[in-house]
Amino acid sequence: MSDVLPSEFFTHPGPSPHAATAELRAKCPVHRIDYPPGTQAYAVLGQQVVEEALGDSRLSKEVENLPPRYRDKALATSLLMVRNLGFADPPAHARLRRPISRAFQPARIAALRPRVQEVVDDLIDDFPESGRIELLSAFALPLPLIVICEYLGIPTEDRTLFQKWGYVLSQDPFHIPEATLKESTDEFVDYFTELTARRRGNLTDDLMSELVRARDEGVFSEREMLSTTLLLIIAGHKTVANMIGNGAALLLTHPEQLDRLRANPELVPSAVEEILRYEGSASWASLRVAAEDMELGQVNIPKGSFVHLSLSAAGHDAEVYDDPERFDVTRSPNRHLGFGHGAHFCLGAPLGRLQGEVAFTTLLRRLPGLELAVAPEEITWLADSSLSRGLEALPLRVRERLPR
After folding, report:
1. In the prediction, which pLDDT does 383 show?
2. How would residue 2 be classed by pLDDT, with cut points 50, 70 and 90?
């Protein structure tokens, strides 16, 4: 195993980290990493080992198994990590997942397609008929925020607040200033405590009502209900926004693939999967900590170690993918780990895929001359302490806007 990787390997991967990661993976699929700084931590870079680890019950997702100083800080400051289905082990995981799993069944999500199409067209209608736009703020961020807010049954007019809270509260609580974290947490808790109190007298069939019912029936505690709401908002908008932004950048910097997709729009679902493999919405899987001494990729992992599973590195593993640095919208098979694997496979995957398919199909059809408004090397990737991988901005030029 090589020297310890710096914290920046996690927080600042840069625009094209895949070649450096391939060199590391060729030496060993598991490396020590200094993140959080000063801890015993490991980065897992090979797809086979990542996939095995995603289903390994010895890797806990509960903050109670963290080293004491990190456990105490997370319990005190992180609403996201304490507790919801994303940060729970069996049997709590099944209890927390069950009340909302019905809402994400494929048939229920498929019924949302006309509304998603309407939101996509409304946003494109606000683009200039020709001129410059910034795709993230004008389209990629508002689309999933509107969709998840409507699906939850919460006020869409407050979506800028949810976007702000989601950005702050999705950061690593060991990295972000405690005062910043506390301020956003308090604002979020106050808002949703008041909202759910109002909703109790007017429960409907929306997802927020399901969460309130689960709390009132004793399935969720108050804090678990709030934590689950936060998880749904973050996962429901940030990852989808990244997928759209990353995907648009990939297509516009691979014109032969863009031309193929324009000529064959039925390939859009395949393109969405390739976007998720090549430059997925999440660089890393969420928290894992070794609940006992174990071995991964022939590397000994002591109990209490952070174990970071790189979804980004896994998607570029040459042992699994033929020519992994080739972006190919027709790639098949394409068994990527962009939505995770095992018991914690992303519940919202059908909704994410639906939005990606509608968004890209409609953008390609309605904006035939869409192009980058900056040189490809000027596209800046966001560097933060969250698990996500996305752009700071994506300036584009609209040549023509066709009617809906």
Report:
1. 83
2. low
- All structural domains of the chain: 8-398 (1.10.630.10)
CB of 400 closer than 8 Å to CB of 367: yes
Question: Where are the alpha helices (H) located in 253-344, listed in sequence order?
Answer: 255-263, 268-278, 311-314
Do residues 128 and 396 touch, judged by C-beta distance below 8 A?
no
Count of alpha carbons within 13 angstroms of residue 46, beta-carbon side: 17
Residues ≥6 apart with Cβ < 8 Å to 64:
71, 75
* Residue-wise pLDDT tens digits, 173-225: 888 888 999 999 999 999 999 999 998 888 998 999 999 999 999 999 999 99
**Is 134 strand, coil or helix?**
strand
Q: Within 10 A of 256 (CB to CB), how many other CB atoms are there?
A: 10
Residues 36 and 10: their CA atoms lie apart, in Å, by 9
Residue-wise DSSP of 208-230: HHHHHHHHHTTSS-HHHHHHHHH
Hey, which residues does 322 pair with through a beta bridge? Answer: none
Whole-structure pTM value: 0.95
Q: How many other β-carbons are positioned within 10 Å of the β-carbon of residue 338?
A: 25
- Torsions phi, psi of 395, nearest 5? -75, 125
Q: Distance from CA of residue 376 to its chain's centroid?
A: 23
For residue 271, give both structure tokens.
Answer: 């393109």
CA-to-CA dists, residue 304 to 41, 67, 71, 387, angstroms: 9, 6, 11, 20
- For residue 299, what are the β-bridge partners? 296
Tokens of 276: 């998720």
Q: Using an 8 Å Cβ cutoff, are 307 and 301 in contact? A: yes
Distance of CA 245 to the CA centre of its chain: 12
For tokens 């914290």, the residue is 7
Task: Determine if the peptide bond prior to 67 is cis (ω within 30°).
Answer: no
Strands 395-398 and 371-372: antiparallel
Contact in structure between 401 and 127 (CB atoms under 8 Å): yes
